[in-house]
Each structure stands twice: as structure tokens, then as C-alpha cells.
């Protein structure tokens, strides 16, 4: 006989194990909060922007072809910014105890679609160091691109600034705890159904019918003991004394 589970059975299982489900969800949130606040290292981010222009003389007007050329150069510049030729000089200028390969993982270079503005973002456990790396990378790139490509078309549009009370970009404790709540809820529901599936005790007449695979003909209602005595007294006549 194929086993089927109704929505009512699901609801009964969830209601029966609601304490377990809530406990798993709360436990997951607590663990995520403790790890986020006390074990994960805060990471700060600083960003600077550079503008890519064509080399120009005074009062020269840009046309659409010049802008398209700049946009094509940006993809090349994005690679050059994170190259050892630039990052090794950044490490030397700031006297950093790292390598160009390790520093590359901290730097993100991006630009909006059809935009001549390039964003250089740096993430580091120390906010002031992220600002220094971002600004130094922009300055070094501005100087070195003149030697590498013989062009002078890079201007620093917006340098990174050290905030008075910077906020870390990660970890995000609230987001982590929200995700943990969902995971804990799913885990609690899964454990609840697993325990219900492993519980083979007979609870009602439906369980008997499923196990024996026989239809139930009738049910015997429970009879209280004091009523049994009254029924027997009424049924059995009293004997007359001789």
C-alpha cells in the first residue's frame, strides 16, 4: 500500500515538534551572532575613483570616437592596475609586509557600463591602511601608465578619505543571523519529520490499519471502571434469600 501524507499530518507533526523547531532556529541565530561579533575579523573598505581621458590640448573638444577609445582602454587599465608592475611599487611606497599576489586579493577594480570612471576599492582589517593602499595605488598607476603606454590620460577624480568612525563592510552580523535563522528553521523542520518517521509506535487506529493492511471493522470505546460496576449490578438480578 502506497503511503500518503496529508496536509493535516504535516501540520500535526510541525505542531508536535514546534519546541524543537524553535530551539534549533534560536540556537543557529545565537551561534551566528557569537561567531560574527567575536570570532570574525572586521573588514573595512576604502574606494578611490580615477577618470580616463584622451590626451588633449587646451580647448580641444571630445567626440564620440574619443570616448569609445577611452572605454576600450579601460579594460586594459583594469588589468594593469592589479599587475605586479603597479602593486610592487605600492608595497614599496607603503612598506607593506605582503606580496603583489596577496595584495591583488584585497583590490577590486570596476567601472560602470559605458563609463570612463574607474573605481578602485580596497578591503583591509585596518581602515586607515585600506585608505592608504587605495590612494597609493591610484597615484602609482597615474605615474606608471605614462611610462607603460606613453599616455597621460588618467586623472584622480575622488581620492579615498579616512572616516572618523568607519563601519566594516563585513561581516554583517544581522545578515548572518537572518541566514542562520532560515537554516535553523529548515534544519529543525527536517529533524522533526525525521523523528516522526523513525517513531514506529502505534498511536491510533490508522496506524493499525497501515501495519496490518486490513480494514477496521469497529472501535471499542474506553469504559470507566465505576461505570462497569453499575452496569453489572443492573444486568445481574439480586438473589432472593430463602
From TrEMBL:
Localization per Swiss-Prot or TrEMBL: Cell membrane
Segments passing through the bilayer: 20-40, 174-195
UniProt KW keywords: Cell membrane, Membrane, Transmembrane, Transmembrane helix
Domain Polysaccharide chain length determinant N-terminal residue range list: 3-94
Domain of life according to the entry: Bacteria
Keyword Thylakoid: no
GO molecular function: protein tyrosine kinase activity
Gene Ontology CC annotation, any one: plasma membrane
Record bears the keyword tRNA processing: no
Record's bilayer topology term: Multi-pass membrane protein
Main location (coarse class): membrane
Classification via InterPro entries: Bact_polysacc_biosynth/exp, GNVR, LPS_length_determ_N
Domain Tyrosine-protein kinase G-rich: residue ranges: 142-194
One Pfam family it belongs to: Wzz
Family indicated by similarity: Belongs to the CpsC/CapA family.
Protein name: Capsular biosynthesis protein
Source organism of this protein record: Psychrobacillus glaciei
Amino acid at each position: 500500500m502506497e503511503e500518503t501524507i496529508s496536509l493535516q499530518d504535516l501540520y500535526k507533526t510541525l505542531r508536535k515538534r514546534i519546541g524543537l523547531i524553535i530551539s534549533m532556529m534560536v540556537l543557529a541565530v545565537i551561534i551566528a551572532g557569537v561567531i560574527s561579533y567575536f570570532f570574525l575579523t572586521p573588514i573595512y573598505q576604502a574606494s578611490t575613483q580615477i577618470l580616463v581621458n584622451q590626451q588633449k590640448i587646451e580647448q580641444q573638444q571630445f567626440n564620440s570616437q574619443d570616448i569609445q577609445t577611452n572605454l576600450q582602454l579601460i579594460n586594459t587599465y583594469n588589468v594593469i592596475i592589479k599587475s605586479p608592475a603597479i602593486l610592487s611599487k605600492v608595497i614599496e611606497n607603503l612598506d607593506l609586509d605582503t606580496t603583489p599576489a596577496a595584495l591583488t586579493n584585497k583590490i577590486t577594480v570596476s567601472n560602470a557600463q559605458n563609463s570612463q570612471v574607474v573605481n578602485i576599492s580596497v578591503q583591509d582589517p585596518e581602515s586607515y591602511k585600506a585608505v592608504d593602499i587605495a590612494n597609493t595605488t591610484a597615484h602609482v598607476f597615474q605615474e606608471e601608465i605614462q611610462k607603460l603606454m606613453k599616455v597621460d590620460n588618467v586623472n584622480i577624480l575622488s581620492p579615498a578619505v579616512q572616516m572618523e568612525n568607519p563601519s566594516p563592510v563585513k561581516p554583517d552580523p544581522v545578515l548572518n543571523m537572518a541566514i542562520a535563522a532560515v537554516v535553523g528553521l529548515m534544519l529543525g523542520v527536517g529533524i522533526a519529520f525525521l523523528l516522526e518517521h523513525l517513531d514506529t509506535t502505534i498511536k491510533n487506529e490508522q496506524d493499525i490499519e497501515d501495519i496490518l493492511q486490513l480494514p477496521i471493522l469497529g472501535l471499542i470505546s474506553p469504559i470507566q471502571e465505576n461505570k462497569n460496576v453499575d452496569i453489572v449490578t443492573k444486568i445481574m438480578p439480586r438473589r432472593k434469600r430463602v
